[in-house]
Each structure stands twice: as structure tokens, then as C-alpha cells.
Write a structure and sequence with these properties.
The protein is an alpha/beta fold and 411 residues long. The protein has a single domain (30-58, 124-384), classed as Alpha-Beta Barrel (TIM Barrel), CATH 3.20.20.370. It has 15 helices and twelve strands. The chain has helices spanning 7-15, 41-44, 48-51, 82-89, 126-129, 165-173, 184-189, 191-199, 219-237, 253-261, 286-299, 319-335, 342-345, 363-367, 396-410; strands at 21-26, 151-159, 179-182, 203-206, 243-244, 265-266, 271-272, 310-315, 338-340, 358-359, 380-381, 390-395. Helix 9 (219-237) packs across helix 10 and helix 11 packs parallel to helix 12 (319-335). The termini are close together. It catalyses: [(1->4)-N-acetyl-beta-D-glucosaminyl](n) + n H2O = chitosan + n acetate.
Length: 411
């Protein structure tokens, strides 16, 4: 599939931006209910080297239309492109939280909290206070735990990992769905991995383009990190995520407000396995991570989550973190009544993507084994029965993202 940018079409679309909320019909070159993943060693082998060999993606990628891989998403001239400029200018920046300033990093690359009023936390800065209830107006509140009792909210960051076949096979064999927070650069690099995530019925969400500390970025950079990640997931899988997770949980009301302009809501966590840090950060060993898992597993039977569930931060980042997940899964299942993705435990059903062609089961449906499954896909089709011409209500900024799906299908 080849996506071609046409300035005339973009201009036409921009003239349609009148009201804040816009209802539009748009098509995509990818039908998310009929994803085709070839039977090649990169998609079937459990050998790490074989899985991570380069393969020709199922599309022609115009590198000039995308940020550089693993660089801040304004790179490669994205911040001055017609596409991004139209998106940026469609947002009313006068309504952004006025007093929430861009944060800084110290010489060691860590966040600089010096001088910040942590006690009063005016910015609802998670990294300073773990604040999750915004203090600014017009900002979507974070999701931090599953509402269903005795429930383990299963989430994995940093995918798609090129060597995840054994892990995804394990989840499939156990009929287990999770929320997968994908990095935009990884989605473009390993598109069949992202396709499999959706085809297997997992809940796909964004995890920024290049895994930056979001509060240290400018408004332009924050918007680009979110937008190009959503664009990459849409480009590859046919769905546009409405949920995301910031790297290291770093967000404040300025970042939340920008995400809210794209109708995006952050999903955080209330338990952190620290799996990524094993043998990487001082004092964190595989035994440390295993003890974290053990402690969290015990909470499932000691009454900690009798009234609400949890959301657990874990990672697809490498084979060690995926091994932790597989090794501990049987004990999690023994100690918790339910293990589900966040979309299901929050009963989002068909409000996780812009497109309404993909529907997830409600919590009760999943528990009662009544959720239907679409042919050739791990998710159910929406009421429209088609991924083409879906009707979606979005704000003016998000309309731009949708518009480029239309442009892609017309040329």
C-alpha cells in the first residue's frame, strides 16, 4: 500500500474544520478485521536472531513523511511540514494551562525537581507526587486501576518487540488479552508485530514515538510524539488509539491537556514490577523483580483488591521481561479471579479507537465467556459490520489525523 500526500486534499479538509466536534466518515487502506500476516520466520520462529531479521514491510514508507526513528517526533522536519502545521494550528493553545511550565532534566538525564512545589503540586506532576487527578480544566483524568475487584490489569510497554513470538504465542494459548502500549518507532520498524497484537485481540495503545520524558518537551514536541505514534498504529493496523501511556509515567497537566486535544487519555498503573530494570539499574536484580511479582500476586488473595483491581506495569522490552511475565502467569491466575486488559476491565468496549469497527467484550461478557469473535480476528466487529466508512466524532485536532486516512485511500 502506498500513501501519497496531496496538499489540495488537506486544504479541502481544513476548510471543513468549523465546530470543535466534527463527525466524519473516513476510510483506511487497512481493514483491521482482516489483517494478513505472512507465514515467514520473522512471524513464526522462536529463535531471537531469526525473528529480528529485517523484512520488507507490507507498504511503501515515504521516510520524508515521518520523524526519524527513535528521535523526538519533530525530527526530520515534521514540525514544519504542512500536515503537522495544520494539526498544530487547529488547536486553541490559548486554552492550555497557562502556569504549567516545561520541566527540565539534570546533567544525569533525570528529571530536575529542584524548586518545584512538591507539597502543593500545582501542575499535578506525576513524577513529583504521583498525582493522577488533574487540577487544570479541560483535561482528561488518568486511569490508574481496574474498577473490577480481584482483577489483575495486564499491561505491557515498549512493544512491538521483534522477538516476541514465543510470548504472544503463550498469551494466545492461554486465551489471554492484554493492553499493549506500542512505541511509534517500533510499530514502523516491526509492523507485523503490531498487526499480530491487534489480530490476537489485544488492546493497542500508544507509548510515544521515541520514549522521551514528556514533561521536558515543548508543546510542539509533545503533540508530535503523541500524533505520530497514533498515526503509525493507524497506518500499520487500521485503528487509531485513544489511550496512551507516558514513558516512566512522566506527565503533568500541560501534557495531559495536549493529549486531551487528540481525545487521548493516559493509562498509568498502581503496581510496578520494575522488570525492565533487572541487571540494568543499580540494586535491581532478577530476584528483585521476582519478589515484586510475588508480593503483587499475594495481594490477590490477601484482600488488598477486594473492592477494586490493579493495573500492573510490565514490559515487552526484552526476553527477560517477557520471561518474567510467562513464568509468573500461572500464580497470578491462581490468586486473582480475573486477568484482563484495561479496555475490558473498564468496559470501554468500542471506545478505545476512533474506528468503531473493532469492539471488545464487556467485563461481564468476558467473565461469562459470552464474547463473540470475528472471523480471522481476535476482536469483534462493530455494529456497522465494516471497517470502511466508519462514523466517528472527534475534535478539530483529531480530524486532521483522520483526514490523512482519507487521503491515503484516495490515491
Amino acid at each position: 500500500m502506498v500513501w501519497k500526500y496531496q496538499a489540495a486534499i488537506m486544504t479541502l479538509g481544513m476548510t471543513a474544520l468549523g465546530a470543535h466536534a466534527i463527525t466524519t466518515n473516513y476510510t483506511s487502506t487497512v481493514d483491521p478485521t482482516k489483517l494478513n500476516i505472512p507465514n515467514i520466520e520473522q512471524t513464526t520462529s522462536h529463535d531471537v536472531v531469526a525473528q529480528c531479521k529485517y523484512y520488507q514491510p507490507p507498504f511503501t514508507l515515504d521516510k520524508a513523511a515521518w520523524p526519524n526513528s527513535w528521535e523526538i517526533a519533530t525530527s526530520n522536519g515534521m514540525n514544519t511540514s504542512a500536515e503537522y502545521t495544520a494539526l498544530y494550528n487547529s488547536i486553541d493553545w490559548t486554552k492550555a494551562p497557562a502556569n504549567v511550565k516545561q520541566k527540565t532534566k539534570g546533567p544525569d538525564g533525570a528529571l530536575n525537581l529542584q524548586g518545584y512545589d512538591t507539597a502543593n503540586d500545582p501542575d499535578c506532576w506525576w513524577s513529583a507526587s504521583q498525582c493522577t487527578k488533574p487540577k487544570a480544566q479541560g483535561v482528561n483524568a488518568d486511569i490508574v486501576n481496574c474498577l473490577e475487584p480481584n482483577t489483575w490489569g495486564l499491561t505491557y510497554d515498549d512493544g512491538p518487540n521483534c522477538s516476541h513470538n514465543a510470548f504472544y504465542d503463550f498469551l494466545e494459548q492461554n486465551n489471554q488479552k492484554a493492553s499493549m502500549f506500542y512505541i511509534g518507532s517500533n510499530v514502523i520498524a516491526w509492523p507485523y508485530g503490531a498487526m499480530r497484537g491487534l489480530k490476537d485481540g489485544h488492546h493497542l495503545a500508544g507509548h510515544t514515538w521515541s520514549h522521551q520524558l514528556m514533561t521536558t518537551l515543548s508543546n510542539q514536541e509533545v503533540l508530535a510524539e503523541l500524533y505520530y505514534t497514533a498515526k503509525a498504529i493507524k497506518y500499520v493496523t487500521g485503528v487509531t488509539p485513544l489511550y496512551w501511556r507516558p514513558a516512566q509515567g512522566d506527565l503533568d497537566d500541560r501534557v495531559r491537556w495536549i493529549a486531551s486535544q487528540l481525545n487521548m487519555t493516559a493509562i498509568l498503573w498502581n503496581l510496578d514490577t520494575d522488570d525492565w530494570a533487572a541487571n540494568t539499574m543499580p540494586g535491581v536484580t532478577p530476584e528483585t523483580v521476582q519478589q515484586n511479582y510475588k508480593n503483587f500476586i499475594q495481594m490477590g488473595s490477601n484482600g488488598t483488591f477486594n473492592t477494586v483491581g490493579n493495573i500492573v506495569l510490565s514490559h515487552e522490552i526484552n526476553n527477560m521481561t517477557m520471561d518474567f511475565a510467562m513464568q509468573n502467569y500461572p500464580e497470578i491466575k491462581k490468586n486473582y479471579k480475573h486477568i484482563v486488559d484495561v479496555a475490558t476491565c473498564m468496559n470501554f468496549t468500542n471506545s478505545i479507537y476512533i474506528e468503531k469497527s473493532i469492539t471488545y467484550p464487556t467485563f461481564d461478557q468476558l467473565v461469562n465467556q459470552n464474547a463473540s469473535t470475528a472471523t480471522g480476528s481476535g476482536v469483534s466487529p462493530g455494529a456497522s459490520g465494516s471497517s470502511m466508512g466508519t462514523q466517528t466524532t472527534v475534535n478539530g485536532a483529531l480530524f486532521i489525523a483522520a483526514l490523512f486516512g482519507v487521503v491515503a485511500s484516495l490515491f
